Amino acid sequence: TQAFSLKNDGLYAENVNIESLAKEYGTPLYIYSRSEFENRWLAFDSAFGSQPHLVCYAVKTNSNIAVLNVLAKLGAGFDIVSLGELERVLKAGGDPKKVVFSGVAKQSIEIRRALEVGIRCFNLESHAELDRIQAVAQEMDLIANISIRVNPDVDAKTHPYISTGLKDNKFGVDITTAPELYADASACSHINPIGIDCHIGSQLTEITPFVDALERVLALKNTLSEMGIDIHHLDLGGGLGIQYTDETPPAIKDYIQALLTKLNDTSIEVIIEPGRAIAGNAGVLVTEVEYLKPTEHKNFAIIDAAMNDLIRPALYQAYQEIVSVVPRTDGHEAQWDLVGPVCETGDFLGKDRMLNLKAGDLLAVKSAGAYGFTMSSNYNTRPRAAEVMVKGDQAWLIRPRETYEDLMGSEVIIQD
Ligand code: LLP
Predict the structure, then answer these.
(1) pTM score over 0.80
(2) What residue spans define the domains of the chain?
């Protein structure tokens, strides 16, 4: 089954009619294809063949516990960046032994909980963080497995906000100074350095930067082994891009194959942390046209989804395809800006789109499965959208639309 396809009576999620889902659950509405999540994770997993490996889905991409549970059932590992994400993985039935913990600012309380449940590895990003993990592990009388996130300084050729492998950003440590930090780590009583970690950026559409990064990581592994530090795994991060419109990212199996070729039969374990490449095209955001507002200069279609529901267009000028859920046979196409109800000029989901629209029509914003709901907010006191998961001809509500009680219920008026 295709995740999303146009049939005679409109757009479908697998075998479920999207218009009927919108009628049942309202809009804005996130709809996910369970098969797409499964197939994409399995594509990564199977591409490794006999190479020892672990595919750790990046939880930040789409962290609904139904999504995490679907992947956990396949045997997925998880890349987390906060205690909240760890609790989600545990609640979803994920195996803590398959969890890697990334992020520049792990708090003591987060480290403690991660050690308590026995995660696989901390990806640490600074000397100060090494000291803190050592202190917490010592206090708990446990050994913390760590890898150090290095910056291989390769240009990922992606948007500057999501490029992370270069020298001049807050992530990781300079690969040339990493050996010193490894030496310090192995001198710690409660730290066990087991891996090398890197993540060079997101939405990469070429294989070369990944292979270049791996080459530098392999050189570091040799340096460390000369120092007597044995590395058991290489974590190559996430970053594989998807097709939003006319990008041509490499296929999953070609990307993994290129890594395996570079590894040249080294039987070291490889961890990867894909997010977008699994979730991105597994979701759409469905929205209804509230008003048409043609003006002398521009045609605005005011829709009921906004930047608080999907911030990528506003934040990164990201382009996501927008299609009619039930294409019209009457009327004609015109050029529309699709803008939301939020009081910001940057509140748009698409600009200059050729669409045949009337008020009340449903639109689907495609490729919204990654960094959609997870980046949403309550700005303008807008309840966050409902989320539905589909498989075959079944649909499950996996998160109801927020209520105003959800938004305000815990706030307190000062009594004086
Ligand atoms: N591992 C680490 C350490 C990361 O920081 C990220 C994403 C991933 C894995 C997953 O990367 P992916 O496979 O999804 O490219 N909000 C932006 C993307 C930010 C990516 C942050 N890090 C967007 O909407 O495009």
Answers:
(1) yes
(2) 4-32+280-408, 103-272
